[in-house]
Amino acid sequence: MLTLPVRLDRADPRPLGTQLADQVRRLVLDGVLDRGDRMPSSRRLAADLGVSRSVVEQAFDQLLAEGWLEARQGSGTWVAGGAGAEGAARPARRRAPAPTRPLVMLDAGTPWIDPRHEAVWRRAWREVSSATPPRGYDDARGLLELRTLVAERLGRTRGLAVDADRVRITGGTGAGLRHLLAVLPRGPVAVEDPGYRAAVATVLESGRTVRDLPALEPVHDLAGCVAAYTTPAHQHPLGRVMPAADRLTLLATARRDGALVVEDDYDSEFRYDVAPVPALATLDREQVAYLGTASKSILPSLRLGWTVVPDRLLDAFDRHRDLIHDAPPWPVQRAMVTLLRDGYVDAVVRSARRVYAERAPRVVAALEPYGELAGPVAGMYSTWLLPHARAARARAAAEEAGFRVNLLRDYCRTARLSGLVVGFGGPTDEELDRALAELVGSLSGARR
């Protein structure tokens, strides 16, 4: 009987049973577990992993329902699809295939990058190479010229009237969130469920607990929480825009209960059905800390973002960053100055918006017969509600063909939702068509 090479992480926000089921699926897909292998008993595996037997049984029940495992009367649990009766010869174990090429990401965060703008990149880096770097450590607030350009753009595109003195340049939204948590009192942080997994991990790493906020409901209670993290322009990952009434309710609740609202505005500019909704921070700049990023509009590997910090937290925010010598690299900031100053960012956003507006209907036409849209299609992905077993099979089929598609359940903590989160920013048109064909083939039952 096998010993499973799995490890459960109690710091992971996902339930232990979900972690175990995910790892068993991965072992089967990688060829570590072969069809016809007998699984350890739930009692033995629970003892090996140091968890209750119910955790293992929950995982096995899920995998049985999805068809990854099969139960044989009086004989235990086996990897599905192997030899029939116990004692019959089993097929030789496959070696895990050597990796050939990276998976094409159809996730919610990989944007489309217009290859026609390579010349602009080269010009930006030429300017960096001819500029004089600072003699000492970088200003932790960010380059003044960059903060000025970001403030101008926030006013023009997000309706957020701020000056450079209120803008702080960071290493992305995750860095901005970490710095905010460092200057807030101790206490839980409320995060949308389902929601952005990196935000949950950041809160947990700060030593705080996470309180789940049902993503599609108004927020009436933040008692005891020091902050509430939200994605109001395009809820991640369900896609809904937070209604005006819910925005006002959230702000009123936060004021009453003394919680900071952290607004992650991660892909707000990519609406192609209506004009972008103004930032939540426009309604109350002192109650809301605003997080923005260049990852979705320009390039994820820049690792550059900005935070608009409420006045009451600004001094503490700056002292914390000075203390730890935190600042994005000076060359990256200088390049970003060129990209903003020369209109490159606006051009990229316009180009990407056109591409997403063309791709979104193709994704909807392909998947609408098999699932229900969780929210309006905007940005660079769409989320589809469907039974978890079907979603898992479709994801496995896509991965076997070289594509990574995320499961909605992986974004959930207590929410009982399942389906697929299908991004369409990262692939080429031809790759997107092939990925959709794999998903449709699995969901329609054409491939088993």
UniProtKB/TrEMBL annotation:
Q: Name one Pfam family in it.
A: GntR
HTH gntR-type domain location, by residue?
14-82
PANTHER family according to UniProt = HTH-TYPE TRANSCRIPTIONAL REGULATORY PROTEIN GABR
GO molecular function, a single term? pyridoxal phosphate binding
**PROSITE patterns assigned to the protein according to its UniProt record, in alphabetical order:** HTH_GNTR
Which domain of life, per UniProt? Answer: Bacteria
Question: Protein name, please?
Answer: GntR family transcriptional regulator/MocR family aminotransferase
Question: Which InterPro entries does the record cross-reference, listed alphabetically?
Answer: Aminotransferase_I/II_large, HTH_trans_reg/aminotransferase, PyrdxlP-dep_Trfase, PyrdxlP-dep_Trfase_major, Tscrpt_reg_HTH_GntR, WH-like_DNA-bd_sf, WH_DNA-bd_sf
> Does this UniProt record's set of keywords contain Lipid metabolism?
no
Q: Which UniProt keywords apply?
A: Aminotransferase, DNA-binding, Pyridoxal phosphate, Transcription, Transcription regulation, Transferase
Its family remark reads:
In the C-terminal section; belongs to the class-I pyridoxal-phosphate-dependent aminotransferase family.
Organism encoding this protein: Nocardioides aromaticivorans
